Amino acid sequence: DAGVTQSPTHLIKTRGQQVTLRCSPKSGHDTVSWYQQALGQGPQFIFQYYEEEERQRGNFPDRFSGHQFPNYSSELNVNALLLGDSALYLCASSLSFRALVGYTFGSGTRLTVV
Amino acid sequence: DAKTTQPNSMESNEEEPVHLPCNHSTISGTDYIHWYRQLPSQGPEYVIHGLTSNVNNRMASLAIAEDRKSSTLILHRATLRDAAVYYCILRKPFNNDMRFGAGTRLTVKP
């Protein structure tokens, strides 16, 4: 049973560029959340998607946007990249955003902005 | 929002029990206590959660204080594979903004 799949695993971008990260949720899960994890820190919540809509958002600027597709997969887009956007970006899936259930996380995409 | 406090690091010997503490003195009545762990080079992994009563699953046990202001994650027999950062998180029903702190880095010595 495949868990959460993220692509690419590593990415290097130049300051000012735009980036798209992709996530396929665990089979049977319909809700996708995105987190940013800076080196040595805990993950920070970016936003969550359910039924193709952004349902909840953390304290991140509008440069961070996302999308969820009918097959529940999701994309995270970051515009106008800053050096401070360098981090591990984690995708987590769960069954129904209303339920109090544990999340399944992917291994993340390591983004380096130079 | 209620916050959690965990020790930065702990050490344990292999095959011995480990008790990982978490303080959450400002917890509200609707906050669930969740534990996740993050192994090196991996995303966080769900471990266990509870509200008021102690909980057990195949991975660990969660002991919750009677006043709910603290909790303890118990690994009954630590293995080298349990070396990870353990996060204690408070989460409200219908709120998916899980706030991770810095967690406790557990080192398991052979």
Give the secondary structure arrangement, pairings included:
The complex is a heterodimer of chains A (114) and B (110).
Chain A: E1 5-7, E2 10-13, E3 19-24, E4 31-37, E5 44-50, E6 53-57, E7 64-68, E8 74-78, E9 87-94, E10 104-105, E11 109-113
Parallel strand pairs in A: 2-11
Antiparallel strand pairs in A: 1-3, 3-8, 4-5, 4-9, 5-6, 7-8, 9-10, 9-11
Chain B: E1 9-13, E2 18-23, E3 32-38, E4 45-50, E5 55-56, E6 61-64, E7 70-75, E8 84-91, E9 104-109
Tell me about this structure.
The complex is a heterodimer of chains A (114) and B (110). Helix content of chain A is 0%, strand content 50%. Chain A has strands at 5-7, 10-13, 19-24, 31-37, 44-50, 53-57, 64-68, 74-78, 87-94, 104-105, 109-113. In chain A, the strands form two sheets. In chain A, strands 2, 4, 5, 6, 9, 10 and 11 form a seven-stranded mixed beta sheet that branches. Chain A has a four-stranded antiparallel beta sheet with strand order 1-3-8-7, with no helix packed on it. Chain B has 110 residues and is mainly beta. Chain B has a five-stranded mixed beta sheet, with no helix packed on it. Chain B is globular and about 40 Å long. Chains A and B meet through β4, β5, β9 and β10 of A and β3, β4 and β8 of B.
Beta-strand content estimate of chain B: over 45%
Record the strand order, biggest sheet of chain B.
1-9-8-3-4
Overall form of chain B = globular
- In DSSP terms, counting alpha (H) and pi (I) runs of 4 or more, how many helices of chain B? 0
Number of helices of chain A: 0
List segments of chain B where confidence is low: pLDDT < 50 over at least 5 consecutive residues: none
The mean pLDDT of chain A is 94
Distance between the termini of chain B: 39 Å
Uncertain spans of chain A, ≥5 residues at pLDDT below 50? none
- The assembly state of the depicted protein chains is heterodimer
Strand content of chain A: over 45%
Number of strands of chain A: 11
The largest β sheet of chain B comes out as:
5 strands, mixed
Task: Characterize the main sheet of chain A.
Answer: 7 strands, mixed
| Derived structural class of chain A | mainly beta
Query: Which value, in Å, is the CA radius of gyration of chain B?
Result: 13 Å
The rounded distance between the terminal residues' Cα atoms of chain A is: 37 Å
